[in-house]
Amino acid sequence: MEWWLALLLLLGVMVVLMMSGMPVAVSFLLVDLLGAFLFLGGKAGVVQLVLNMMESLTSFSLLPVPLFVLMGEVMFHSQLGFKAIDVMDHWIGKIPGRLALLAILGGATFSTMSGSTLATTAILGSMLVPDMQKRGYHKSMSIGPVMGSGGLSMLIPPSALAILLAALNQVSVGGLLIAGILPGCLIAFFYAAYVVIRCLLQPHLAPSFEVPNLSFGEKLRATLIHVVPLGLIIFLVIGLIFLGIATPSEAAALGALGTIFLAAAYGKMGWETLKKSIMGTVRVTSMMFMIIVGSMTFSQIMAFSGASAGLIQLVTGLDLPPMMVLISMQVILLFLGCFMDNLSMVMIAIPIFLPIVNALHFNTLWFSLIMLINMEMANTTPPFGLLLFVMKGVAPKGTTMGDIYKAGVPFLLCDATAMVLVMIFPQIALFLPGLMK
Question: Among 31, 76, 320, 326, which is most exposed with the fewest C-beta within 10 angstroms?
Answer without folding.
Answer: 320
